[in-house]
TrEMBL record:
It comes from the Bacteria. It comes from Bifidobacterium samirii. This is Uncharacterized protein.
């Protein structure tokens, strides 16, 4: 690939071309300078940089190939990247919401936790009136009314044995999967954010990139976590699941300057996750917003959300002009603003009820925003 995201400690991420890197370092790239794929956020390495040594002539000669970046050959995670195979036309995966799950500490402040299934209620006010009594979500052969789950946010489903083949234990009506979400494949562990601080957080979708210098919670058996203890800078057992002392909750984190990051990345890749120093999501600049459910919910009803590109191009100052873009055909829906995007007209958007997902051409600068929050 011709370009990559350059990351240096204590500096912002910048997208650079291979030729620029070659002109600057002449093939001798410092170890403190790291590069990541702009498509999948996986580490990439420099190729065909500097001069080649001709052993016959005993001198340096120009390389026959142009400078470029490449994924590591044994990086199984990167094999799913559309830039991994040169010239391949890999189909882009669908933007599908996973079934919402939370890790919550049991009341009383003890070391017991539970995993809950919940429904996304925001923006679904009209759904309960269309639901029938037979519209249920079935967990372990027990039906739960979708209408009741949507009526009160306190109505959740406590999931026992959350690591045991959920794809066969949870059944969701086909016509409601776009609203409720899909069941993620069981991998032997569950990873949650720290959205609730020390009380738990939201489950991360598969193929998520974990960030350095952030705390995450892992639900797993002690045997699976043996290898992780030597990888993470912090891997501390903070409790167990209520009713199952064999499943522990671990608080894990790794420093952005840690030498263990490659080991953490290798361990996470076994379970469909990766570690990245690069945040490819478009950055919401205005207005203030809630994001506890993974969706931007602007607090000011009459303000249009404005997003900034996550990193600079070629070390040049970012343009501050705002380009307006309409994501939804509803004339009442307000536009979003884009700052720093070279091709704002290449926005791809997909709407599901009152939620809009958008991304910019090949780069997964994905955000989800409630467009009803910015409607008259």
């Amino acid at each position: 690939m011709d370009s990559a995201i350059q990351v240096v400690n204590m500096a912002g991420a910048v997208q650079v071309s291979a030729q620029e890197v070659n002109d600057r370092f002449h093939g001798d790239v410092p170890a403190s300078v790291r590069f990541y794929c702009p498509f999948c956020s996986r580490p990439v390495i420099t190729r065909a940089m500097g001069w080649d040594f001709d052993s016959r002539r005993r001198n340096h000669v120009p390389r026959t190939r142009n400078p470029h970046f490449a994924h590591r050959r044994k990086d199984d995670w990167a094999k799913n990247c559309e830039a991994y195979h040169a010239g391949s036309g890999t189909a882009r995966e669908e933007m599908t919401l996973p079934l919402l799950m939370f890790l919550r500490r049991e009341p009383g402040g003890n070391a017991r936790f539970r995993v809950e299934i919940a429904l996304r209620r925001r923006g679904l006010a009209s759904v309960p009136s269309r639901l029938q009594s037979e519209d249920t979500i079935t967990v372990d052969d027990r039906p739960y009314s979708l209408r009741e789950l949507l009526t009160d946010r306190r109505n959740t489903i406590v999931l026992t044995d959350p690591l045991g083949r959920l794809e066969s234990r949870i059944r969701i009506p086909q016509q409601w999967r776009k609203n409720v979400g899909c069941v993620q494949q069981s991998t032997g562990i569950m990873i949650f954010s720290d959205s609730f601080g020390s009380n738990g957080g939201r489950r991360l979708p598969e193929r998520s990139a974990l960030r350095s210098d952030c705390t995450y919670y892992i639900v797993a058996g002690e045997k699976r976590m043996k290898g992780a203890r030597s990888c993470f800078d912090r891997a501390e057992s903070i409790g167990s699941l209520a009713g199952d002392d064999q499943l522990h909750v671990y608080a894990v984190s790794v420093s952005g300057a840690s030498r263990r990051k490659n080991a953490v990345d290798d361990w996470l890749s076994q379970y469909g996750y990766c570690l990245s120093d690069v945040d490819r999501a478009a950055q919401l600049m205005w207005p203030p917003s809630l994001r506890s459910w993974g969706v931007d919910e602007p607090l000011f009803r009459n303000s249009s959300p404005t997003y900034r590109f996550p990193y600079r191009f070629n070390d040049h100052p970012m343009q501050d002009a705002v380009t307006s873009k309409r994501l939804h055909p509803d004339p009442r829906a307000r536009e979003i603003g884009l700052i720093g995007f070279d091709h704002p007209d290449a926005v791809e958007a997909q709407t599901e009820w009152f939620c809009a997902f958008f991304r910019l051409f090949a780069f997964w600068c994905v955000r989800a925003v409630r467009f009803d929050s910015v409607c008259d």
